Amino acid sequence: HDGIVCALLMNGPVHPVEVNVARPHNGRTALHLAAFHGHQNCVVHLIEDGNADPNLECGVGETALFSAIRGKNSASVKFLVEQCKSSLNLANGASAIPMAEAADQENPDEKDNQAIIECLLSTLSDDELAGMEHAHECYSARKSLGVFLAEKAAAEDSERKEAELARAQSMCEAIFELADTEGSGHLNCAALVALHDQVRAGT
What we know:
Oligomer: single chain
Helix content: 55-70%
Radius of gyration: 30 Å
Distance between the termini: 78 Å
Structural class: mainly alpha
């Protein structure tokens, strides 16, 4: 697709191409379609070589950014947000953040969903972030749900291992104290055997 688009745009001086023309039935432009279907090279060519307008809204009021979010195309979202400075809000008041949060919650293991919501959240100031209602606490920390849950599970696992290590160390110290009957810093074999027998007997 990108080769065809590039060739058409390169012939612009001879055969001008109107890249912002919209489909009559839904108002979507070539940029909307490229963003939704993940044709990242086409998105770049259309904007940089064809001067496509990333802020045009289709028949349902959706810009190319929203099409990219619906299509789960993180590369297009990143380009439109960071390079084109596409607005996160539509004329009808809809925001890209809740839309991306909903997609991330529906499938938190989807890497593109994770990349999209984290990209969008990174553009917000601290005040903007704090002023929004989020679907989950993870978004207030500018993290996707999948990453947040993975980090939380890793932290809990680390705490569990530290607790187990502390218990094991405490047990070793108790055993050493009981077996070092002479206080010499050396374990007494007979005392260890007696301790073993007590443990087995449950006394």
